[in-house]
From TrEMBL:
Ranges where the Response regulatory domain occurs: 1-114
SUPFAM superfamilies: C-terminal effector domain of the bipartite response regulators, CheY-like
UniProt entry keywords in alphabetical sequence: DNA-binding, Phosphoprotein
Domain OmpR/PhoB-type: 122-217
Pfam families named among the record's database cross-references: Response_reg, Trans_reg_C
Feature: DNA-binding region: 122-217
Membrane-crossing segments per the record: none
Organism (species): Dactylosporangium salmoneum
The protein, known as: Response regulator transcription factor
InterPro entries reported in the protein's UniProt record: CheY-like_superfamily, OmpR/PhoB-type_DNA-bd, Sig_transdc_resp-reg_C-effctor, Sig_transdc_resp-reg_receiver, WalR-like, WH-like_DNA-bd_sf
Signal peptide annotation: none
Length: 219
């Protein structure tokens, strides 16, 4: 997801908090750079401050809607009047949150929007004896809890949501990490290796040479 907020301290606090929830988050501190980022990358959710320097948040939202992207917009503003909320929603925002706000509420709204931005997936994902609860952020195999890092959990979650389709390393890097990740790094391969060790046998993830990874039931 992307946070576009010109109050640097607030933006950084939001980003840190969302990353602690296991989300891959990019950040822009002005409307111009934020507009460029949303036009290039397909984000699930954009947390968008309305009053931005450069390109106004309203214009970013309108251009995003016009592009036909599935990206959902949570608009932030210092004004909490009914008129402002109505205007923001009419522009095309999916949700509206006045400042100051409770961080738990922000997380809940972002998660709800994220579920609407991608093809519907059940809150609990399973394959064989593996169970992953997206809401509780826990995974078990054969009833035993798995001690996964946030990135390992994220990789597993993306593969399970793909329902057996191949997911490339590039897609995993984009969806589980953030814009600061080196596209030439081996971090996906290394994290996948540790994830497989923790999942144990029989293997549930297979490598499709030259394409990526997918889940499969053991033979």
């Amino acid at each position: 997801m992307l946070v576009i907020e010109d109050e640097t301290n607030l933006a950084d606090a939001i980003v840190r908090g969302l990353r602690r929830q296991g989300m891959a988050v990019d950040v822009a501190y002005d409307g111009t750079s934020g507009h460029e980022m949303v036009m290039i990358t397909r984000y699930d959710v954009v947390v968008l401050d309305r009053d931005l320097p450069g390109i106004h948040g309203d214009d970013i939202c309108a251009d995003l809607v016009a592009s036909g992207a599935l990206t959902r917009v949570l608009m932030l503003t210092a004004s909490g009047s009914v008129a402002d909320r109505v205007e923001g929603l009419q522009i095309g925002a999916d949700d509206y949150l006045p400042k100051p706000f409770a961080f738990d509420e922000l997380v809940a709204r972002v998660q709800a929007l994220g579920r609407r931005a991608t093809p519907a997936a059940p809150p609990v994902l399973t394959i064989g004896d593996l169970v992953l609860d997206q809401a509780k952020r826990v995974a078990t195999r054969a009833g035993q809890p798995l001690d996964l890092t946030r990135k390992e959990f994220g990789l597993l979650e993306e593969l399970l949501k793909a329902r057996g389709a191949v997911v490339s390393s590039e897609e995993l890097l984009e969806r589980v990490w953030d814009a600061n990740a080196d596209p030439f790094t081996t971090t996906v391969r290394v994290t996948m290796m540790t994830l497989r060790k923790k999942l144990g046998e029989p293997a549930l993830i297979e490598t499709v040479v030259g394409a990526g990874y997918r889940t499969r039931l053991p033979q």
